Amino acid sequence: MTKCSGRWAGTAVRRPRSARGTGGRSVWRGLACLAVVVTGQVRAGDPPAAAFAALEVTPGWALVQIGHGEQKRFTSPLQAAFEGGAFTLQAASGALFFKRSDEPDGFGFVNQPLEGDGSITAKVTRFESFHHWGGAGVMMREENTPLGRYMCAMLETSHSKEPQADAGHTMAASIRMRREVGPEGFRVQRPDTVTLPVWLKVERHGQQVSGFYSPEGKEWKLLKEAAIPMGAKVHVGLTAWSRYNIKGMATFEDVQVRSGR
C-alpha cells in the first residue's frame, strides 16, 4: 500500500492492470507520489543498492530507501506517514552500521536538502516495539548513498543487564556517525535513561557537526561533536530501522529545519 500526504508511503507503487480515464488518458491516483529512483554507490565488488521509489510524504519531504545494509539486513522498506503535523515512521529491517564505517548502511530516510550551516530538531513522542538493535532519530547526511558521511542523534533500547520491572528495556539517547570510509566505527550511548517525550537535534557549523538531546526541548545535552567533511549541500531528516521483521514505530512532532547559525 502506498499513499502520501497524511497516509502511509513506503512500498513499491504498481500500475493497475486496467484504469479508467478521460480522452484516452488513464487516471492513476498514486502517480503523484512517485518521484525518482535512488540507487546508492558502494565500493567496487559490493552488490548494487536496491532500487526503490522515492515518495513524497508531504510537500518538501521525500522518503528514499538506500542500500542493502550490513549482511543485506535491509529487506523491507521504511514506511512513513504525515498527519496532524507529525511524522510517523514504521520499520521492520535495516541498520546504520557502526562497527566499521566501510560497511554500507541500509535504511529509509524522510529528508529534504539543506545548504550550508543549519540544524534539524524534532520532538519524539512515540518509540515502541523496536528490536533491541533498532533505533530512530534525526540525521544529517552528505549523500543519500550507503556509504555517505553522516551523524544521527537517535533513540534506542538500552542494553542494561539489570532486569526491568516490565521485563523490557529502558530507552537511551545515542549517536551513530561516519566521518570517513574506513575501519573506524562510532556509536555512543548515554548512560542515563530517557523517557518520552525527548527532543533530538543535529546541527552543523562549518565542518563541525554536533548531536544533542533534551528532556524538555530547552536545555540541550551534547551527545557528540565531530569534524565531518561534507559539501555545501547536505540532506536532513528522519530515519528508523529495526531487525528480523520486528516492526518498530516512532512519531516525530515539531520537526524544524533551520539554515544558518
Structural commentary:
The N terminus is likely disordered. The chain has no helices and 18 strands. The strands form three sheets. Strands 3-4-5-8-17-10-11-12-13 form a nine-stranded antiparallel sheet, with no helix packed on it. It has a seven-stranded antiparallel sheet with strand order 6-7-18-9-14-15-16, with no helix packed on it. The chain has a two-stranded antiparallel sheet with strand order 1-2. With 261 residues, it is an all-beta fold.
Query: Uncertain segments of ≥5 residues (pLDDT<50)?
Result: 1-5, 11-52, 163-167
Task: Quickly give the structural class.
Answer: mainly beta
How many helices? The count is 0
Shape: globular
- Give the C-alpha Rg: 18 Å
Instruction: Indicate the proportion of strand residues.
Output: over 45%
Distance between the termini: 40 Å
pLDDT averaged over residues: 80
User: What's the helical proportion of residues?
Assistant: under 10%
Largest sheet: 9 strands, antiparallel
Characterize the quaternary organization of these chains: single chain
Extended strand count: 18
Spatial strand arrangement across the major sheet: 3-4-5-8-17-10-11-12-13
What string gives the helices and strands in order?
EEEEEEEEEEEEEEEEEE
Helix/strand layout:
Blueprint: E1 21-22, E2 25-26, E3 34-38, E4 52-58, E5 61-66, E6 79-83, E7 86-91, E8 107-115, E9 118-128, E10 135-141, E11 150-157, E12 171-178, E13 187-189, E14 198-205, E15 208-214, E16 221-227, E17 233-241, E18 248-259
Antiparallel strand pairs: 1-2, 3-4, 4-5, 5-8, 6-7, 7-18, 8-17, 9-14, 9-18, 10-11, 10-17, 11-12, 12-13, 14-15, 15-16
